[in-house]
């Protein structure tokens, strides 16, 4: 685990739970530098003042706000320190809410909380309680002079804090393209539900991979192995022929169900087993019919021979 980015305590009524905070996620995207295409030199950025034209050190930079009317206000670090903020080293619990009442769209960034005490009994008590009552604690969390509403929950016995967006940070949506659209037909809904059922399974994140990053790493490895530092051009593959657009929604669903059914059968390995079981009775019936057919002409021939003798 990386270095803790925050230390403090959770204020749970009169109970104090000392914790250390760690970033719970990490970005595995491959990073690039901007370079001069001509000679590969790194591109550097210079903070230049548009008034005096001189380079400015970061310590000499303040923050400015410009209103829609064009009024400009400059604030210093001292001005920001006077603004109200939650206690920087305390995570106060505001209330407990049912887990399903928090819309996932509000989740922003996740952090792990580690007990910061020789006797983490209070930490375990809070985690066990949240898990048993199936609720999430709403808290205030201040990091880098910014206070966010956050959700405190349990994951694999560990407290996880997830910062939430404020309600006004989620954009309202109203697409005119959805106005007046006819309701799906019962047949379409039934087939769609069947298709969903055939494609349903338990979620296992391990079976999904970032194919883009994998292929990008291969390209970089090949460029390094070539010793030139540049990507060797590859012949472009001809684009695959596209199926004609399926206008009929029911036909599209039917094709999807058929394709899904084939994939399911192939993966289970039962495709070839079923026809054999049904083939045996069919063979027996065919043999029996053949015997009956062969027996009838034989009887007629015997009768004709007896009549001739009598004559």
Give a verbal description of the structure:
This protein has 311 residues and is an alpha+beta fold. The chain has helices at 77-81, 121-133, 186-198, 211-226, 249-268, 273-310, and strands at 6-12, 15-23, 63-66, 72-75, 90-98, 107-115, 135-143, 146-155, 158-164. It contains six helices and nine strands; from the N terminus they run ββββαββαβββαααα. The strands form two sheets. Strands 1-2-6-9-8-7-5 form a seven-stranded mixed β-barrel. The protein has a two-stranded antiparallel ribbon with strand order 3-4. The longest helix has 38 residues, at 273-310. It is extended.
**In percent terms, what proportion of residues is strand?**
15-25%
Structural class per helix/strand content?
alpha+beta
Gyration radius, rounded: 36 Å
Shape: extended
Q: Kindly report the spatial arrangement of strands forming the biggest sheet.
A: 1-2-6-9-8-7-5
> Considering DSSP H and I runs of 4 or more, what fraction of the residues is helical?
25-40%
Query: What's the rounded overall pLDDT mean?
Result: 80
């Amino acid at each position: 685990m990386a270095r803790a980015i925050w230390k403090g305590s959770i204020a749970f009524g009169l109970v104090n739970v000392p914790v250390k905070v760690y970033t719970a996620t990490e970005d595995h995207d491959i990073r690039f530098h901007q370079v001069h295409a001509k000679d590969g030199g790194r591109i550097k950025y210079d903070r230049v003042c548009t008034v005096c034209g001189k380079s400015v050190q970061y310590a000499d930079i303040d923050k400015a706000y410009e209103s829609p009317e064009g009024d400009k206000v400059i604030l210093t670090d001292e001005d920001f320190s006077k603004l109200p903020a939650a206690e920087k080293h305390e995570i106060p619990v505001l209330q407990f809410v049912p887990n399903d009442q928090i819309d996932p769209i509000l989740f922003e960034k996740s952090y792990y909380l580690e007990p910061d005490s020789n006797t983490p009994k209070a930490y375990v008590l809070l985690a066990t309680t949240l898990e048993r009552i199936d609720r999430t604690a709403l808290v205030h969390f201040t990091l880098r002079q910014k206070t966010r509403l956050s959700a405190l929950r349990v994951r694999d016995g560990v407290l996880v804090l997830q910062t939430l967006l404020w309600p006004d940070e989620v954009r309202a949506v109203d697409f005119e393209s959805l106005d007046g659209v006819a309701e799906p037909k019962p047949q379409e809904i039934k087939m769609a539900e069947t298709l969903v059922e055939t494609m349903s399974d338990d979620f296992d994140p391990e079976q999904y991979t970032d194919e883009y990053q994998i292929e990008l790493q291969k390209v970089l490895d090949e460029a390094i192995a070539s010793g030139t530092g540049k990507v060797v051009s590859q012949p472009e593959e001809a684009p695959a022929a596209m199926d004609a657009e399926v206008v009929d929604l029911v036909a599209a669903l039917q094709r999807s169900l058929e394709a899904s059914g084939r994939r399911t059968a192939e993966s289970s390995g039962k495709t070839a087993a079923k026809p054999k079981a049904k083939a045996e009775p069919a063979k027996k019936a065919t043999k029996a019919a053949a015997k009956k057919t062969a027996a009838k002409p034989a009887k007629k021939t015997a009768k004709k021979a007896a009549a001739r003798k009598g004559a």
